[in-house]
TrEMBL record:
Phylogenetic classification of the source organism: Bacteria, Pseudomonadati, Pseudomonadota, Gammaproteobacteria, Pseudomonadales
Species this protein is from: Marinobacter azerbaijanicus
Source organism superkingdom: Bacteria
Signal peptide limits: none
The name this protein goes by in its record: SDR family oxidoreductase
Record family assignment: Belongs to the short-chain dehydrogenases/reductases (SDR) family.
Length: 255
């Protein structure tokens, strides 16, 4: 009996870290389903990836339960199975201004997409992941662990995602493993829908402030995703992995 090709869903996969992760799994021979709300970014993906037979793109909003139900059904109809889910969709801009000026709608939108979207994806994919003994990877952020001013909504949504990760790991084990990744500074400019042809190079100081000696790339995060969904990580669940070049371990004092 021929081995079936594994299928992975990546939310927010049409650009940034999600797109880099999609490229990584396509190169590994997986079948990749991208969920994304940005129609232009989805169209760019159709042109950028050279193996369309293994790629399926669905325009949807992860914060809308009916969209999630419909998109998951479409992914299963196309792929015939489901092995992994990467909850990567999120509003990336953390700065929402002073807390006394933060509108409830702004707060709620970040919670809805960054946190509730991951809950809805888990809710509507877990029965299929149980069948494949699959896994979920939630894309959190180092901002769940440390903060800059005026980032309360983003930090709360990502901190909630860490808690959701270990709660799901306990509830869904041993059938489904659940882990999270907290990226630091990842240079995603080349993976955006409207990427500049010749982006300004990052400065030497941008790289040197990282103990690893450089700013991160989507490939750094994708490699961790690939490990976490692989059989080699079958004893790993409920964990958060910081991919930040060592920045959250570095003491920084103002001069």
């Amino acid at each position: 009996m021929a081995q079936q090709i594994p299928v992975i869903i990546i939310t927010g996969g049409a650009q940034g870290i999600g797109k880099g992760t999609a490229a990584h799994f396509l190169d590994k021979g997986w079948r990749v389903v991208i969920f994304d709300q940005d129609a232009e970014a989805i169209q760019a993906c159709r042109q950028d990836f050279s193996n369309p037979g293994n790629l399926h793109l669905i325009e949807m909003d992860v914060s809308c339960e009916s969209d999630v139900i419909s998109a998951v059904a479409g992914a299963l109809q196309w792929g015939g199975r489901l092995d992994s889910v990467v909850n990567n969709a999120g509003l990336a801009d953390p700065d929402t201004g002073p807390i006394e000026m933060l509108e409830l709608a702004q707060w709620q939108r970040r919670i809805d997409i960054n946190l509730t979207g991951a809950f809805l994806m888990a809710k509507h994919t877990v029965s299929h992941l149980r069948q494949s003994q699959g896994s979920i990877v939630n894309m959190a952020s180092t901002r769940a662990l440390q903060s800059e001013p005026d980032s309360e909504a983003y930090a709360a949504s990502k901190g909630g995602l860490l808690a959701l990760t270990h709660a799901l790991a306990i509830s869904l084990g041993p059938d489904v493993r659940v882990n999270s990744i907290s990226p630091g500074w990842i240079d995603v400019r080349a993976w955006q829908a409207h990427a500049p042809a010749n982006p300004e190079p990052l400065s030497a100081s941008d790289h040197e402030q990282h103990p690893s000696g450089r700013v991160g790339t989507p490939g750094d995060v994708a490699a961790m995703v690939a490990y976490l969904v692989s059989p080699e990580a079958r004893f790993v669940t409920g964990q958060n992995f910081v991919i930040d070049g060592g920045m959250t371990r570095r003491m920084i004092y103002e001069d």
